[in-house]
Amino acid sequence: MPYENPYDVMAPIYDRMNAEIDYVRWADFVEAQFARFAKEKPQLVLDLAAGTGSMTIELARRGYDMTAVDRSEDMLSAAADRIADAGLTGVLLLLQDMTEFELYGTVDAVVCCLDSVNHLTRRGDLARCFSLVHNYLNPDGLFLFDVNTPHKFENVYGENDFILDDEEGGAVCCWRNLYDKETGICDFDLTVFTERADGTYTRTDTVQRERCFSEDQLRRALTKAGFEVLGFFADYDFTPAEETDDRWYIAARCKKEI
Fold first, then answer.
1. What domains can be seen in the chain, in order of their start residue?
2. Other beta carbons within 10 Å of 104
3. Angle at 187 between CA 186 and CA 191, to 5 degrees
4. Full-prediction pTM beyond 0.85?
């Protein structure tokens, strides 16, 4: 039976299944965007939908005052363990949904990584999230996030099946995709096998869902929420985004009356 929160299912294997992601290089790009777009170097940074804290940890190591928000208790528990193992202190972890989060004050920048925005699948979710981000950003604060593109939904996800086998970690993740181009929704039927100490496996079934957003939808949502769109990029070198990219990196600036 599916978990109420499917992200808890992925928490124990999330980092192993995403081991190919170079968070050091990604954080370098975040700082490059700070240098290019921020009027003053950010100090207070929110990692929204932080997962197991990979970006949180990398930016904390670089001296930023970090807050991490995620809706999965298991993901945040893993993040807390990793933060402690890294010897970092002062990182604030908040168990909250990205459409309903509350902070203790404003921040200078918000980062939201690994297509978390695509998980805003309900009607009005995107607007609610962007409005909250705007609310908790200082004037001219930066909002940096990425999305899976329409090209990826149609040509990579589609109705394809995938298997990820983590032999060293003793886990296998299988999923079947079903993408509805009319609604923009892709359902991922996930089955995760995790190895027990005795060599047998535990099976867990769940469903995750993502929504496809066009460039125009994202631009309009950002503008309506009070942001100035600074750019859509294809990679960490500020290459302009194209329709055939699998991932877009988006930078926006919060506009507020002082």
1. 6-149+213-254 (3.40.50.150), 152-211 (2.20.25.110)
2. 9
3. 140
4. yes
